[in-house]
Every structure is written in structure tokens, then in C-alpha cells.
Specification:
This protein has 14 helices and ten strands. GO terms for molecular function: 4 iron, 4 sulfur cluster binding; 7,8-didemethyl-8-hydroxy-5-deazariboflavin synthase activity; aminodeoxyfutalosine synthase activity; iron ion binding.
Amino acid sequence: MSILEKIEKRQRLEYDDAIKLYDLDLFDLASIANEIRKEKHQDKTYFNINRHINPTNVCKDVCAFCAYSASRKNPNPYTMSHEQILEIVKNSSKNGIKEVHIVSAHNPDTGLKWYLDIFRKIKEQFPDIHVKALTAAEVHFLSKQYNLTYEEIINKMIESGVDSMPGGGAEIFDEKVRKRVCGGKVTSQQWLDIHKLWHKSGHESNATMLFGHVEQREHRIDHMLRLRKLQDETQGFNAFIPLVYQKENNYLRVKEFLTGQEILKTMAISRILLDNIPHIKAYWVTSTVKLALLAQEFGANDLDGTIEKESIQSAAGAKSANGMPLEQFVDLIKNSGFTPVERDSLYNEIKFW
């Protein structure tokens, strides 16, 4: 039976077939992925009104792909005070945000209590705002820093008001590639273990994959299949987010960058392979708005959100530092032929625009 016939019958593809998906015609892949998208989500394109906060760029790790952490490439270290963070949330709440997304570096000086206290303060002052915070990489860092188990860190997060976990820190799971791009931080298996524990606590998370650097196609397929396996067990992932590598101000020295076609193929393949993860997010911050909108016809059904402010990807060249106005976001989705659906962080539908 051919790959196309297997997909037509909605048979699950394993590695040997999955890697061959990249050999298919771009528009054949688009047609397949778009059909699956329509089965799951019709013409809906989801987004949320959210605010990204990156509290500190001081980091004990030196990842080759990163342009955000304070280093020779970014000689401007900063750490926000709780008062500064709360002021941001206060101002953003006036814009109707439903989520605050808190991710930062592995700062050995701020401390676990510093994080837990700000989560608690946000929840006390803004109880209706969903707190998405601490990647698995940050959980691992804090676990090692304070000699606590992952379970203990996760329980403290929940007690302090964290509602869901972002998908960052996954990068690429292949161990050899991972050693080159982010050796020293959370391992592939540790990342998966942390999300498994988070899901078993009754909470949901996202999953990411950083691609377009020194990995190969087979590494992307391996990454997706590892996520699919965990999802079979826990059903805790809301969305898969293929993050396009940003090329400026880092140490990987990548010379050949992905074409738009390769990015779109990867989006489509993720929709085909990840049959058990409901949403595929084309994160406009890393892919550009235009390509993210096009990706909605290649299996993606989510664009993330307005974000208001973003520091990590923009440090590496992404045009996302100041987010995107809500009206422009909605108009772009409509003009692309999709129905804009505002959602909350767990994909409950709030408003059809």
C-alpha cells in the first residue's frame, strides 16, 4: 500500500513511511494536511489575546542557537522586579489579555521563590488571567539548583497559580544534534519526563520543535514521533508548535537557511503525523505573519496571539518585538479566507470574529 493510500485510510505512519513524506509534491502534502485540518477544525483559525513577559535574560547555560541570554552577543543583562512585571500585567489587562506567558533564562540569582511569588501575585491580583509559565528546561534548571524533584517543582508551580506549561526547551530531541545546539540543559528524555509528570498532575501543555538549523529531516520526524508516543500515553498536549530557527546573533553559523517550501512541508507533515495532538500552531513570531497565514492551508489551525511584547525570538532577528494589534490580526485571518476564532489558553472558544 502506498503512503498516500495509507493516509487516505487514516492509517498511522511510522518512521520509514514518515520520512518519505518529504519526497511528496508540496501541493499534494498541502491537500492532504488541509483535508485533515478541515476534518478537525473546519475553516477556523485560532488565536488568543495574550502577553509575553520575559523577566530575565541572565542565564547559566550557553546554547549555541540562542541570541536572548546575556552573553558576548547580547551584552545587556536585565532582571525585572516583581513590581515591573505586575505593572505590565496591569496595563495588558486593560487590553483584554486572557493569558500571560512567562518564559525566561536560567538565572541562578533570582531563585525559585522569586518565580513562585510572582506567579502567586499575578493570580491574586488578576485571578481571571491564565498563567502559562516555566518551560521544562526551566523546571529542570530549578530542580538541579534547589535539589528538588521534578514533581516537587511542579507541585509548587501549581500551588502558586501556574495553569499550563509552555512547550519551549524541546529544541530537537536527537541527542547528537541536541548536544551541539544546547548541550548542558535539559535532555530530550528529561523534557519528555517533565511534561509527562505535568500531564499526570491533571494539567495541559504545548510541545515545540526548533528546526532549520543543523538538524536534518530525519531528526524532525524522530522528534514528532517521540511526541506522538507520549501523547498516546497522556493526552496532555494541546498543540504542536514547529518553531523556525532565527539566524541572527548566535553561534551556530548556519549558512543555508530553510526555504518557505521546506517550512510548509514540515508544517503539513506535522499535521499528518501528529494525529493525536489536536492543534498545529504556525507561530507567526518565528515564521513571519505571511508564511504563518499560508501555513493555515498546510495543516496549521492556530497563529498564537497578539503577544504585545516579545524578547527571545526578536533578539535573533524575528520581527516580533512589539507584537501585533488585535484588529490587524483579525483582518489578516479574514483576508486569508479563514474564520478568526478567539480562544482561551486551553482552546475553549471565546468569540468568532
